[in-house]
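Practice problem: predict the structure.
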Amino acid sequence: MPFGPSQTIRDAVEKLIGAGSGFVIFDDGNDDEYVQFALESKGLMFNWPTMLAEYKEKLDDVAALLREFQFQEGAGDLDVGAYDIADDGINAQFGKDVDRIERFTLEAFRRLFGKSEWLKLNARVDD
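Answer:
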């Protein structure tokens, strides 16, 4: 059974899917370090916005991480397993694959924000 940040991610994603709409934001207590997903008809859409300079600088790293998770670059209406780089950031459709969302979110915090396995995550689910 998962524990710690893995369980935080799983619980929040399952709550969001159960609610049928909304979004979830995971953070580590730092407002500038977060990973977010919105629930759409096909499932959870990851969004990496480029409003902050620090996020824009990591755009290539985010795309590389998505490719490591077997995402293919697409465009427009994204199917599950596809991502798109737009003017305002990256979007990637995860569907309802809780395992993939959990693993990706943890890896994003490790690689993009330099967090360790002792990461403590907060989750905010809103509609």
